[in-house]
Amino acid sequence: MTENPIIRITKEFKFEMAHSLPGYNGLCKNIHGHSYKLLVSVAGQPITGNNNSKLGMVMDFGDLKKIVRKVIVEKFDHALVLSCKTPSTLINQLKQYNERLVLLNYQPTSELMIIDFVQRIKEKLPENIQLKHVLLRETVTAYAEWFAEDNP
């Protein structure tokens, strides 16, 4: 077997979320929803040592699942996500009807959300694990991707 191989593992997550893109010159300026798919790929060396219960794993898929669920899925699933630049009168009205209103300091496009998600995930990963790739699928035909090698 090759010595010290670097292996990537990927876990997929699904969540439902609504957002709007104020200032956009198309239908997406209105509040609408998507069924998102998020793929998270990490890399590392498989664990060695016969006394380790995670022998042969880069990272336990369950541990990766706990991280992503906590920092992304639990926060954004079935939430209405808006820019904090949305008029305060609208935000106040929406707060009356939406328990899960998330205000972001950026326009909630897939491109900007993926940058945010990358930072949230990176902060929680073990030191020996590197985030390599994140894909956020907004629709069946549209997605944003982040690659570690593009973002040194």
Concise structural overview:
This protein has about 150 residues and is of the alpha/beta class. It has helices at about 60-75, 90-95, 110-120; strands at about 5-20, 30-45, 80-85, 100-105, 130-140, 140-145.
What is this structure's SSE topology?
Elements: E1 7-19, E2 32-44, H1 61-76, E3 79-83, H2 88-97, E4 101-104, H3 110-122, E5 130-139, E6 142-147
Parallel strand pairs: 1-3, 3-4
Antiparallel strand pairs: 1-2, 2-5, 5-6
Notes on the protein architecture:
This protein is of the alpha/beta class and 152 residues long. It has helices spanning 61-76, 88-97, 110-122; strands at 7-19, 32-44, 79-83, 101-104, 130-139, 142-147. The chain has one domain: Tetrahydropterin Synthase, Chain A. Helices cover 26% and strands 34% of the residues. A six-stranded mixed sheet has the order 4-3-1-2-5-6. Strand 3 (79-83), helix 2 and strand 4 (101-104) form a beta-alpha-beta unit. The radius of gyration is 18 Å and the shape is elongated. The model has no long low-confidence stretch (mean pLDDT 96).
Major sheet, described briefly?
Answer: 6 strands, mixed
User: What structural category characterises the helix and strand content?
Assistant: alpha/beta
Rg computed from alpha carbons, rounded to a whole number of angstroms: 18 Å
Distance between the termini: 30 Å
- Counted by DSSP, the helix tally is 3
